[in-house]
Amino acid sequence: MSGAAKAGEQWVALCGGVGGAKLALGLSRVLPAERLTIIVNTGDDFRHLGMHVSPDIDTVLYTLAGLSNTELGWGLAGETWRFMEGVERLGGPAWFRLGDQDLATHAIRTAMLTEGRSLSEVTAYLAGRLGVGPTVVPMSDDAIATEVDTDEGTLAFQTYFVGRRAAPVVKAIRFVGASKAEPARAAVEVLAADDLAGIIICPSNPWLSIDPLLAIPGWRALLAERRAPCIAVTPLVGGQAIKGPTAKIMAELGLPLDVAAIVDHYARLIDGFVLDAVDNDRAGALKLPNLVTNTMMRTLEDRTALAEACLGFCRRLRERGPEAAR
Amino acid sequence: MSGAAKAGEQWVALCGGVGGAKLALGLSRVLPAERLTIIVNTGDDFRHLGMHVSPDIDTVLYTLAGLSNTELGWGLAGETWRFMEGVERLGGPAWFRLGDQDLATHAIRTAMLTEGRSLSEVTAYLAGRLGVGPTVVPMSDDAIATEVDTDEGTLAFQTYFVGRRAAPVVKAIRFVGASKAEPARAAVEVLAADDLAGIIICPSNPWLSIDPLLAIPGWRALLAERRAPCIAVTPLVGGQAIKGPTAKIMAELGLPLDVAAIVDHYARLIDGFVLDAVDNDRAGALKLPNLVTNTMMRTLEDRTALAEACLGFCRRLRERGPEAAR
What we know:
2 copies of one chain form a homodimer.
Chain A lengths: L9 E6 L2 H13 L5 E5 L5 E3 L2 E3 L1 H10 L17 H8 L12 H13 L4 H11 L5 E4 L6 E6 L2 E4 H7 L6 E7 L8 H7 L4 E6 L4 H9 L2 H8 L5 E4 L2 E2 L2 E2 L4 H7 L6 H7 L6 E5 L13 E4 L6 H20 L1 H5 L1
Parallel strand pairs in A: 1-2, 1-9, 2-5, 9-10, 10-13, 13-14
Antiparallel strand pairs in A: 3-4, 6-7, 6-8, 11-12
Helix pairs in contact in A: 1-2, 1-12, 4-5
């Protein structure tokens, strides 16, 4: 963690795993490293086989380091699975797969946490070792555990998401520990920066990846008192989620599969909304400034183009003054 | 842990790592599995990268399962090192090497201990999964940490042994936690068995591998009240240790490199001593019953032959009655 105030325009991205990390990568390519802080969901964190696993932080770190496994969609490229073979031989849990090299991340994180280092410190250390330039910060250094009430009962997040492949019907989602958690200090500092230029909510699952952060009272307050425009990028394109169970969960929670439902979800927290060109006909009905552009990030160029579009949108919102921005 | 009393003649082996495990393997080949209990040193146990590592227990389990890496002298055969590559990339500690499949053992052990299982329970579970027939029991379920006072200061055992390759000059050895530790329950049960036939101290390092057990007051009492002969097999052959720093440590502690020093070390705890044929000329000077035989265990046949010799020696000591046996 850098204690020194950063100089120059500061940008903040809030994100979960894969979808969010794509935009975070785009932002990292169009902003100097010292001007970008990526705040990452830790509601998915859990202990597995004695190790502290932070799936979204790792996805962001690996993606920004150019090490992510794009075939699997998680973990490290070129991964091997000898550890898992050993776990299976010993009758251990095989439902959550940990690659041999990925395991080094978890082991070092666990050891550092056991020594009393904060998750922020561990994340900064790992980012440094992986050559990740932007500041990557967990949403909180306190433990927050997402739990899902389903038609199969209450499930820990990873049991629901990986163990049951998000198949159970979601009735409610809880973030255990969030009400007593504090935002990570580095997050507080950057949101209080005089030269904060914008806050971008990445196209992550609002219910699973962004809500854990919003469930922290201190985060609600930080965003309510924001000194710069906050925008969200749609996780829905043409009524479908690009990846993951966003649309499925929305349907199960009785929400229309429409970008307006996403905007409603972020009501009062965002000053602008980015929707996909295929949803151009929905733009007029939105009751806040919006930007219609390509949000499908298939290539690195897509990622940087969407990142540039987000920066430009925030700048325009800021120029329009407090009324337009709030 | 089996709660049921075992039927038939019971044998107990006390051992540390590699040297002891060779004789334990021999014993496992000449005794029915239900008649052999192997009590293993845990003074070398430590936490590394967040994981509970029990080096001697693992050496015994892997050796008895036929999975040990005989080239390295530790770990699993056919091991890979991708995890260690990951640890090095992340700047983690590389001085203690953990193989990808070996890691599964540590991770499962750590997870089970974290859930509140005892080390005895974990060891029984792992033994079962690896198809190890004899009962393998840690000397204690309580934490005991060997520390070495050296000319470089006080070192944790693995720092001394692996990190510094046993190079520092040993001044004293301590077993932190031993005075308050209890013998493992399964060990107490087998030592109290009516049909206990013999206790064999394997050719492990007396100062590093057997003393941790002897530093536990309850173990001293169990051995003092033994209901069957206890013998020790020499770790010294021709004034040299077959493996490891036994001779070096003896010299540093000011002891003569002679089997008599080993016998003195085990004074009042053993009823007989097994020395190597090359030390035949030393047998006469020993003040207790002894057996001269080949103690070098190069082949499996060597191991089973030494095991048979130990069993026969104990039986003869027992037949000679309490005077000879005590």
